[in-house]
Batch of 2 targets.
Target 1
Amino acid sequence: MEEKKNLVGGISRKTLERLPMYHHYLERKYREGTETISAPAIALDLQLNEVQVRKDLAMVAKTAGKPKLGYVVKDLIRDMEEFLGFHNTNQAALVGVGSLGKALLSYKGFEQYGVEIVLAFDSDGRRVNTKTGGKPVFPMDKLENLCRRMNIHIGIITVPAEYAQEVCDRLVGGGVRAIWNFAPTHLTVPDHVLVQNENMAVSLAALSKYLYEVDKEGGQWTEEEDH
Amino acid sequence: MEEKKNLVGGISRKTLERLPMYHHYLERKYREGTETISAPAIALDLQLNEVQVRKDLAMVAKTAGKPKLGYVVKDLIRDMEEFLGFHNTNQAALVGVGSLGKALLSYKGFEQYGVEIVLAFDSDGRRVNTKTGGKPVFPMDKLENLCRRMNIHIGIITVPAEYAQEVCDRLVGGGVRAIWNFAPTHLTVPDHVLVQNENMAVSLAALSKYLYEVDKEGGQWTEEEDH
DNA sequence: TAGATTGTTAATCGATTAACAATC
DNA sequence: TAGATTGTTAATCGATTAACAATC
């Protein structure tokens, strides 16, 4: 029985989740003309603890910050992109060209993160051999073969939950090593494959629960109050 | 300065994130004819610790499990849905009818979680006064007014990052108390408003980083190995 | 009964925050 | 220099896991 890993490349999952937030924030600051920035300033804007910011930045920054000055924004952005591997483009295949699949195929913003969707698969004959967002849609039986031949490393699953595991297995069979799963279901994969769940159900549950609580308590509420 | 809350209704965020996973799993089991199920069985299938499963279920279950038997699947599903507030439908407004916005408007699966998108807003005159997924699209200047009049509590943001904060402020101004944010940016909101980030950038960063590491290390890799 | 499974208390683990000396 | 800010070590906090008595 294998351990579930919490670390990706020596960095905790929690830290990794914050990095894109810093990245986006720093890019905006840089566009606005900010040249250097301090950890307390970042912490204030992003509502984080300043020590946490310093520790997070220490994970990625090649050069240390300077007391009284802070960090050089431009260098920080560069180091962060290198750390996250945004410059090594990975090609991805998407399976399931429904409305969500179409939205993802049409979305231009992924390349910035080093991911490019190059082709899609669908079981519906009417969608096969068309193009969506400029990306060709192939029939399912070409999946393993095309993924392997094109050396695709990322699979994006946007099929209904009941087909997700099967699609996942086939992607892994085609040599895919990282899965971005939009189906609201748990996927079982071999150890060397990473599953990243984009779990909308989780968000909805949190929203729903929050509003439910607020209504129940009849207004604003804090966890300190015990009723 | 306010504390960021980690608890929603006396339950830890981590636990809350697992509940939809149990819910989906249990529904499948129930469809397959399973009447009772034990914590170890769930833990095995979902790759969790069995004590964790028991603790999580204890948070939601109205009736205790029975030694040697486990829990009644049907009751568990019912309790979980009640706990998460899936039966109290909340109406939502979506802002930004781009490809992602359209996909969400067309998606039928939200109602199951107690969320119903009833209308949308967009700044593009060509989209205004059309319907997408059967939901009317209104111009931006109607936002606050319509949200308030219709007693909308959930706002869904699918606009580009640079407009997200402004849209967020207006939704809050219209009485929205929970925001589902798809823009890759940090939103600042009053304390009584919950922001749920559906942060694709985070997922992409994790995928990208993982593949980057795997390639660097020349194959499979574990965090135990120090090179 | 025997043993699988429960719920709970205690131990462990990891992540966050506080404290502080170093430094530009 | 003085003080803002750094990086790091120690303390705290919360979540996970292990241990175990209760029970059907």
Target 2
Amino acid sequence: MSEDYREFYYHQLFHDDQPRSDDLSVHPHLQLFDPNPYLSFTEILHGPTTDHDKYSPPEIVKEEENPVVVVVEAGEGGETPATPNSSTTTSSMEAAAAAGEEYSNKGKKEESQDDPSKKEAKVKKKAEKEKQPRFAFMTKSEVDHLEDGYRWRKYGQKAVKNSPYPRSYYRCTTQKCGVKKRVERSYEDPSTVITTYEGQHNHHVPANHRGQVAGMFGSPMFNPLLMPFEAGGPNFPQQLLAQMPHLYGYDGAVSNNLYHQRTLTQPHHQHSQQLPPDYGLLQDIIPKQESGFFYV
DNA sequence: CGTGTTTGACCAGCGC
DNA sequence: GCGCTGGTCAAACACG
């Protein structure tokens, strides 16, 4: 991990003077995890450097209140620039706050005194919405819309309050797949893209024209790692997470970016925490310790 | 022609 | 009630 990345990480973690990151209390729905925030994706992939081997994290990780920060360097796949360091992914409290703000605000005034049918519809709508799993993560990237293997159709763009950068709205183009994602650039760090996924893919990652799985991490070195996941089924990432609900407080969907993030994360040290019953061969590929994300 | 983007309009929720 | 904001729609447009 370069110093840059570490700086970036700490920036995300400890900027408690930011208005959007100080209100976890208002985001009870947020579930933050901290498997191992001290590793960059590079380290995860290639093993730690000697320096980092000696590195001891300060006493700042407590229970589940700190955000997961996993830095992932994007390969040269998709639209991601070819420079190895041009794109890094992390998840953070800031992203959680950014992505979750809406959740915390909406539904507060649900006690409508309107007619029962309207109220019922509202409740139903709310329940439906809350059923949609969400999580957000941050990607250090020069491009806004990172290739992640799925096909997305942009259906809207809005100016973001307090930010010079617009927010883009995407929907998965696959029929009957209602997964959406929002992409916006952090106003605090313009080099950072905040991506929020909502919903669950119910289909395979579509192959691109060359019959390969596209993706922001789709460089050749990554593809072999993708294979087992492809073989795993249409909802592989979902299945993956579904196997670790006790770890992630979640029982269903996951973004494909997370999918890649997790897929590409190579174990270099396995902790001896209990594994899910069906962790199976995934344990060879997925180091549950070094990946992370949060739901919003 | 199929697919995806752009962009202004519209709607609903929320705070004041 | 009103204004602000976020999210979505859909027509027009661009592109391969």
